[in-house]
Amino acid sequence: MKNELHIVGGGMAGSEAAWQAAQRGLNVVLHEMRPEVETFAHKTGKLGEMVCSNSFRSDDDEQNAVGLLHWEMRAAGGLIISTAGEYRLPAGGALAVDREAFADAITAKLTALDTVRVSHEEVTELPDQGQWIFATGPLTSARLGQAIQAETGADALAFFDAIAPIVYAESIDMEKAWLQSRYDKGETEDEQKAYVNCPMDRDQYEAFIDALLAADKTEFHEGETAGYFDGCLPIEVMAERGRETLRHGPMKPVGLTNPHQPDVKPHAVVQLRRDNALGTLFNIVGFQTKMKYGAQADVFRMIPGLAEARFARLGGIHRNTFLNSPTLLDAQMRLRSRPNIRFAGQITGVEGYVESSAMGLLAGRMAAAELLGTPLPEVPQDSAHGALIHHITGGAEAKTFQPMNVNFGLFRPVDGLKGGRRGRKDRYKAYTDRAKAAWSAWLDAQRTA
């Protein structure tokens, strides 16, 4: 069919790419293998299913690169970020959502479009004909992975991604835990009390670390290596790096006061974040793990307030595949050896729901521009989208390429501003002001073309 685009993968990137392409008049076939072919982490066949955290992270568009990416996607009519806003949950300064309602809405919005057809089957080859976007994410099927390997002539890089457990709220002992966002962030009381906090004294923390280190862990299959992405390390791997690592990471006690013992400073604090609109489920923040299920329950129940915890989902671990994009993709996210094929999302080497959605947004617009014969202006490097795509398509060092979250370290310096911590606030505001202007101009150029 004329002006038809095929997209493989119905996660964040694929759903966003389909939406962007359809809004520009393309006919889209969205190929999603679930539920016909299942993955370790997914539970449904819905589009936009969240499999790890339910958070899109910071929504601060002036001092945070992730929040800036939110702003840019909203300005571009992004499906993922606008739907997240509709189903947001209290989470301090973060954008967290009710994951089930969110996936239901993404599925409904895409299937309601006459120009989008969802086809549930596994795609196992790289097609020679037609325009395609592969947004198969970190859990690309084995057969498709083999086809990609055969085409690129290089081994796909891989690391292991770990999933945090989810606890039933009613099983948390609130006589030991309390509700508070770090530094009381948020405009409303709900936002300021978005997290459950479980305090530990020094002895409890030391015993917890001992248990983590001694717990039974998931074994890797022969030939697999544990090259973790640093932004999603299992807690036991962090503990192995030093006994104080967790206390300065997900268990840091700063910005929190225990109302049960206001004069006692906790040595460490475990935080749980609401996972659904009803407030019946909470996920343990930063507690990705590769411990075996029995060990998880024993170790996590050592946390004050979770002695009687019941788990809606225990943590897990899965293989996460991504391309060496700096060597394989051009500036339009096309596979150099097969320019009819684009890649988008986590398989390109970005990390996180937000970054994946952003790359889907760009891929969808780029494919539409190519099929419709309407040249797309170059994505401005000073925008958050531009900083990311520049990094994965050439800015990164190919030999050491690893998945990357958006961060201000990817942005070109602003002349005349101080470096270091003292100048950080002014520097970040300058980055975001410059990015918004560049992104707005890029969008305006497309409207007038």
UniProtKB/TrEMBL annotation:
EC annotation from Swiss-Prot or TrEMBL: 2.1.1.74
Function recorded in the entry: Catalyzes the folate-dependent formation of 5-methyl-uridine at position 54 (M-5-U54) in all tRNAs. NAD-binding protein involved in the addition of a carboxymethylaminomethyl (cmnm) group at the wobble position (U34) of certain tRNAs, forming tRNA-cmnm(5)s(2)U34.
Top-level EC class as recorded in UniProt: transferase
PANTHER family: GLUCOSE INHIBITED DIVISION PROTEIN A (PTHR11806), METHYLENETETRAHYDROFOLATE--TRNA-(URACIL-5-)-METHYLTRANSFERASE TRMFO (PTHR11806:SF2)
InterPro entries cross-referenced by the UniProt entry: FAD/NAD-bd_sf, MnmG-rel, MnmG-rel_CS, MnmG_N, TrmFO
Domain of life: Bacteria
Cofactor: FAD
Family: Belongs to the MnmG family. TrmFO subfamily.
Database matches in NCBIfam families: gid_trmFO (TIGR00137), PRK05335.1 (NF003739)
Gene it is expressed from: trmFO
Tagged with keyword Ribosomal protein: no
Compartments where located: Cytoplasm
Catalyzed chemical reaction(s): uridine(54) in tRNA + (6R)-5,10-methylene-5,6,7,8-tetrahydrofolate + NADH + H(+) = 5-methyluridine(54) in tRNA + (6S)-5,6,7,8-tetrahydrofolate + NAD(+); uridine(54) in tRNA + (6R)-5,10-methylene-5,6,7,8-tetrahydrofolate + NADPH + H(+) = 5-methyluridine(54) in tRNA + (6S)-5,6,7,8-tetrahydrofolate + NADP(+)
Residues of the MnmG N-terminal domain: 5-373
Name of this chain's protein: Methylenetetrahydrofolate--tRNA-(uracil-5-)-methyltransferase TrmFO
Keywords for this protein: Cytoplasm, FAD, Flavoprotein, Methyltransferase, NAD, NADP, Transferase, tRNA processing
Pfam family membership, one: GIDA
Binding site for FAD: 9-14
Organism for this UniProt entry: Mesobacterium hydrothermale
Major subcellular location class: cytoplasm
